[in-house]
């Protein structure tokens, strides 16, 4: 099963390499990874999506907790949560395709953020499967380049991950 | 600043080897007398000495090695300590800050290299941080589940002409690191109820009891309950080895009775042990009828390989003490009838195998006899260090450890070359104690250069080299699994060890016959102020038994070359 694990950790050099190293060292997989400082500049928030059974994910959270730089760990998938990913996608867009892409883009509530006579660059925000759906709706022929941010997530309601 | 911080930490000995990036530090060491530096002949030995000090005392040992090759040579020792959860602080020199990343002379990314084998590592970025980093390093190394900590120290952080304010912090507070200090009372109560209802219980204890200083509490609880106790390789000495309730080591080369008892148990109380693959054999067949209570300071050790029914996260000492109090105050008593029947069964198993080995008429010694003799000559009271292989297993099986912290071996990583420097680290800190290094002619040659260090610092350890002219454990596996094709497991062109140690200024003895063994060994231990190397010829065809059958359950064992359960 896919899990979204959120980690609050010290914003220090080497901290990220410890997290990433842990995953390869213990043979866990990383589907996506995002990391950035929080409103408190001494802390970073890292979100990793991984696939594994409950036992593996339990080990991952325990091992992450053991890292000295890690302050808190939560498996967001255990409760109600919101996940979002940003994608920018550069498409060949000329002739009839321009209108077609624009329509698909509207359906998915994407925004065209860069335009040339032959290309569109579309920005799309949503859960990962929505981004996947957009890509398959386009058909691969027109895609020139795709960049995705990886997942970040937050719990619904009052629950927070903080100090 | 570095030396002063070590002094403030109360460090007496550091083990190391100088080099370019550490010259400022070595100059500071030269100009004081509080922190004594021990010069080894290879950095790996420095880490093992520091490690063994920690194993014998529970306090973090300190090693100091230079950048580049000095640091990489130390990695094996750091990994050895990591696998066995041993507190250690290793200071590695580093090239000047402005050269880092430029492939400078003797530069290596020690933070990167050491990361998977340390509890934590630090890079010093500002000289004024040194005292706080040193304090944190010791705090992290020694608290919670202990482990090695590396401090990477660029040369320009130690420039003697620059002065900085120095204040050694009394306490450490880290928001991201708060080791647990006691167990969950509700869980402990639930576990105690299970203990009192058990009919076929086994206490399975590991290195956590030794490093957690909990052997007294374990012994008290086991005696209150009249439960059998088995120790892991790392846990030997956690419960007195000559006690009736002790049923031996468990696992791959565990005793017949310990493995049988585990397999048939209805309750296993695991304390400071991690259900390692050399203990459990195939986990899907492991102890099919047992409920498992698991006490460990590291939550990640619980339910990692074997699911625990009652997990208790906390220090073994505190949790066991609380359990003993609950048992004492409980109206319910352990089920005496069930335990009587259980002990009868265990005693039957003991009769069946009970650590037997065959001696034949030839004068060729069995390695087991040598260990039994060592146990006899030292009254089971010596510090015994070992290398890795058959001799290690024989020492674990046949030396009766009655006290914790006396059995010092590389259990997790299995590092050949550990034994001699470990013995040196112990002897240095316990000059009046008997310290024996049980080794083989293969392992000893991995760090034999340290005989020179022994001479320099006058470390009269006793080295028992069980010489079977082969890498015995490799050979045993080749006999059992590869139709005796002994690929590269012989030891040719061995030196004359007696002459070799004599050239270092030590005493060498060669023992070929069992009838000479006792006299020679007593003579060796009587030479209190000399290092004695005993080159003891043992049967090269001997195997370690019992040996669990691969991918079987706990009870599936070879008992001799031809007999299995």
Automatic annotation (TrEMBL), chain A:
Pathways involved: Amino-acid biosynthesis; L-valine biosynthesis; L-valine from pyruvate: step 1/4; Amino-acid biosynthesis; L-isoleucine biosynthesis; L-isoleucine from 2-oxobutanoate: step 1/4
Keyword Protease: no
Annotated catalysed reactions: 2 pyruvate + H(+) = (2S)-2-acetolactate + CO2
Domain ACT: 4-78
Enzyme class: transferase
Keywords (A to Z) from UniProt: Amino-acid biosynthesis, Branched-chain amino acid biosynthesis, Transferase
InterPro entries xref list: Acetalactate_synth_ssu, Acetolactate_synth/TF_NikR_C, Acetolactate_synth_ssu_C, ACT-like_dom_sf, ACT_dom, AHAS_ACT, AHAS_small-like_ACT
Coiled-coil zones: none
Record text on subunit structure and interactions: Dimer of large and small chains.
Name used for this protein in its record: Acetolactate synthase small subunit
Organism per entry: Marinobacterium alkalitolerans
Gene that encodes it: ilvN
